[in-house]
Amino acid sequence: MKRIMSSLIEDRSLRDKVYVFKDRKEAGRLLAQKLSGYKDVNGIVLGIPSGGVPVAAEIAKAIGLPLDVIIVRKIQLPDNTEAGFGAVGPDGEVSLNTNLVSQLHLTEKEVKRQIQITVDTIKRRNELFREGRQFPLLKDKVVIIVDDGLASGYTMLSAVDFIKRHKPEKVVVAVPTAPKGTVDLILPQVDEIVCLNVRSGFTFAVADAYEKWYDLEDEEVISILRSFRIG
User: Whole-model pTM?
Assistant: First the structure.
């Protein structure tokens, strides 16, 4: 993959603000405006289920690229499903936040158990969302990876690592919101990050960027993917 200087595209008027998007669809449409330069290129938009799919669908529609999913998942803490200490990629590759594992005093048994739960979940979600379709070819393509927001960034890093092994022309991360520290973590690993709402501060929650926030059911994700393929 050709390497160029990584760049961040943001909306400075949204810096450090909360509740800046009506919902995921609006966020996707606003991201698409910043991605208009990729209209009709040899590329693909990959949404991270579940919340990234409605965002990705709006982008793909607006810039005329195919939509697919990339199944990556954070390794959840045993007692907190919102927080994670790493992530697992589509091919089972594990990325651990070893500092956090040490801080939390997790045992080796606990770590292995949570990793296995995550691997099993990825397998189930692949069967559910991909419906038997092969993962698309990415070689020499512009790949735009989309989620509804970043927190620690480990899930996105797993997706980036997996995609780079498929030798794309360019890797672009597009998210509505993220903390500045996570943007700084991911930026050197990709060609471009488009993040409209960059926030600093001690606390961060993806949901705080949205007026309307809810957890998507699997059926809604499947419906979006099917309607897009039919369309």
Answer: 0.89
